[in-house]
Amino acid sequence: MSEREQPWSDDPVRQGRILVLTDNPIARSIAVIASTVGRTVVVEAADDGGPGLHPQSGDAVVLCDHDAPDAPAVLRAALASEASYVAMMASRRRAAGLLEDLVAEGVDVSTLHVPAGHDLGGKGPGEIALSVVAEIVAESYGRTGGPMRG
């Protein structure tokens, strides 16, 4: 009898935290999905950045509210940190003004994921969160997140 091959590893996954700014339906869905895949999630409920997210090496930072009063400061700090992934929930059009301001200040926004997530076509908070968590997981393994068939 041959041994069955399992498509997963039982080895513990050691990845950075997922830091999410502003408690809203997408943030809560990110927390559920990311927790399910074994990631530690910190949701900062205060839309002014609260006490601060303090990203560390390997962390992912997701700004779920581009209209948050402290959005520019959060992005500035995250992009200057050792976070491995920094993203903002916003359309390119809605993000344009904020990005222009950051670039004018000399902030390098080349690594900012905006809009956050993979293009899955989802519209609901859970579907959007799934696309963001999928992008974070793919990036953490150096993958693009495309189809496995090929």
TrEMBL record:
Domain of life where this protein originates: Bacteria
InterPro entries with a match to the protein in the record: MoCofactor_Util/Proc, XdhC_Rossmann_dom
Residue ranges of every copy of the XdhC Rossmann domain listed in the record: 19-136
Name of the protein: XdhC Rossmann domain-containing protein
